[in-house]
Amino acid sequence: MTNSPAGEEKGKEWDEGAPVPRTWTHLQMATMKALKTRNALVRECMAELLGTFVLLLFGCSAAAQVKTSRETKGQYLSVNMAFSVGVMSAMYLTKGISGAHLNPAVTLSFCALGQVSWDRLVPYCLSQLLGAYIASGLVYLVYYDAIMNFSGGVLTVYGPNETASIFATYPSEFLSLGGVLWQVVGTSMLMLCILGLGEQRNTPAPSDLIPAIVAVIVLGISMSMSGNCGAAINPARDLGPRLFTLTAGWGPEVFTCYNYWFWVPLVAPCIGALIGTLLYQILISLHLPDPAEPERVCCRTPGSRFENKGIFPFCCITMIRR
């Protein structure tokens, strides 16, 4: 028997090379359009949440691996490098939507500079805090068995088998007020170094390389300024995981230990960020040339192509910067 035209037409319907029906394409487009968030603030908060989640997932996972393996599967430098990779990855992921602050202290500084509206400060900070909390929960689930094996099932802040430092930062037992100073200095250095990266009047870094450069800056701070009490330099990075440990079994000790240390990585980075921003404004930004401001070149400068040879009846020549 020969195939009928109807049979041939039926076979064409199942041809793998046949184009996708337009109704299916339209359905996909409608679904994607429905999922797209039109509110700019909501989009930016989602980006900050996801970016901080990525940052903490890298960093706290490395801390858990190093701690629970008793440094047989990594060392302290591994944690520093993991946080830096997290910063770079999160910035590449979200900088096109929110600017990739990932840090309430950074958001506060940009608000003070007028680069971000003040009404975004609280939503950004809450989003960053939530992202850090969720990342800590995922790290806890992934490393649950290792944490319990290391601690003997006792979740504590003190002692050789403490595991709270996997998530939040805690001071060395010998530390005094120097811990506050280190948090201030570290965050000041962070802001002082990153504010110049996009400064067009200076020597700006290529936009595509800024996340990598910021990651190197964070790595440098972590390697040089974290020995006393960790390099939090980020209130969300510390408070989010600390809140998680409060609810996951470590108890209120995570807030009361070391004379209520928790307020230091919460407040000091904000102070340090504002100090670093102020230093940049006073010592660098105010002294950079204005592109629209004319430059006066002295004709008495030896070797200058504008050197007065007695031809010009005036001393200095004014040039417009281009």
From TrEMBL:
<dbReference type="GO" id="GO:0016323">
    <property type="term" value="C:basolateral plasma membrane"/>
</dbReference>
<dbReference type="GO" id="GO:0015254">
    <property type="term" value="F:glycerol channel activity"/>
</dbReference>
<dbReference type="GO" id="GO:0015204">
    <property type="term" value="F:urea transmembrane transporter activity"/>
</dbReference>
<feature type="transmembrane region" description="Helical">
    <location>
        <begin position="121"/>
        <end position="143"/>
    </location>
</feature>
<feature type="transmembrane region" description="Helical">
    <location>
        <begin position="180"/>
        <end position="197"/>
    </location>
</feature>
<feature type="transmembrane region" description="Helical">
    <location>
        <begin position="45"/>
        <end position="64"/>
    </location>
</feature>
<keyword id="KW-0472">Membrane</keyword>
<keyword id="KW-0813">Transport</keyword>
<feature type="transmembrane region" description="Helical">
    <location>
        <begin position="76"/>
        <end position="94"/>
    </location>
</feature>
<dbReference type="InterPro" id="IPR000425">
    <property type="entry name" value="MIP"/>
</dbReference>
<dbReference type="InterPro" id="IPR023271">
    <property type="entry name" value="Aquaporin-like"/>
</dbReference>
<dbReference type="InterPro" id="IPR050363">
    <property type="entry name" value="MIP/Aquaporin"/>
</dbReference>
<protein>
    <submittedName>
        <fullName>Aquaporin 10a</fullName>
    </submittedName>
</protein>
<keyword id="KW-1133">Transmembrane helix</keyword>
<keyword id="KW-0812">Transmembrane</keyword>
<feature type="transmembrane region" description="Helical">
    <location>
        <begin position="209"/>
        <end position="233"/>
    </location>
</feature>
<dbReference type="InterPro" id="IPR022357">
    <property type="entry name" value="MIP_CS"/>
</dbReference>
<dbReference type="GO" id="GO:0015250">
    <property type="term" value="F:water channel activity"/>
</dbReference>
<feature type="transmembrane region" description="Helical">
    <location>
        <begin position="260"/>
        <end position="280"/>
    </location>
</feature>
<dbReference type="Pfam" id="PF00230">
    <property type="entry name" value="MIP"/>
</dbReference>
<comment type="similarity">
    <text>Belongs to the MIP/aquaporin (TC 1.A.8) family.</text>
</comment>
